[in-house]
Amino acid sequence: MSGHIRIVNDPVDLVPLLITFHNATYKQVYDLLNKSWMTEEELSDQMAEGDVGQCLMVLKKGSLVEEKWRMPVPGQKPVKEYRASYNKFRANFQCNFGDLSDLLFIAISNDEHLRCMVEKVEEELRSGNTSINDIARKFGVNPVFIKGLAKRIPHLDVKGQGLVLLERSQ
Fold first, then answer.
1. Are 78 and 106 within one domain?
2. What is the pLDDT of residue 169?
């Protein structure tokens, strides 16, 4: 593993990091990938429980893993393999405590209010409203809160000033 440093310039990018290291399964997958390249199947074999596919989605979303195609044995299909991208961390941002408290709450809470908010945001996206600012205004929250939610949910992401629903297979 090389000495790559994960530089976080936007506090919203803390959410996938905190989720990864607050969840024992995600952390175990990250630790395995920190040692060597592994396929999803190899990871599943090493894990006692947990959805390795979802773990990989969250790790990819946080830019914590890289992927490449493994050269197959003749007659077999190539498979993707993964490894951890970084082994050091640096934060380079400033934000107010209100935004920071929202992001920490989003990252480590299992509050039912968050689940309801995610469902409402997904409804807005399906109806065609992708603007982070419009969605935040509609629900009376800060745009950073909406971005944080998108970073928490594996099938949502932030693209510019809008939100997108990701394909479940990514």
1. no
2. 47
Residues 6 or more apart whose Cβ sits within 8 Å of residue 100: 11
Residue 71 pLDDT > 80, yes or no?
yes
Q: What is the pTM of this model?
A: 0.80
Give the contacts of 53 (CB within 8 A, at least 6 positions apart): 40
In a domain, 43, yes or no: yes
Which residue range(s) make up the domain with 138? 97-165
Indicate whether 112 and 85 sit together in one domain.
no
Q: What is the mean pLDDT of residues 98-108?
A: 93
> What is the domain count for the chain?
2
52 lies in a domain?
yes
pLDDT for the residue numbered 131: 94
Query: Rounded distance, CA 17 to CA 133, Å?
Result: 24
Query: Of 152, 132, 154, 127, whose CA–CA distance to 142 is shortest?
Result: 132
Looking at residue 91, its pLDDT comes to 92
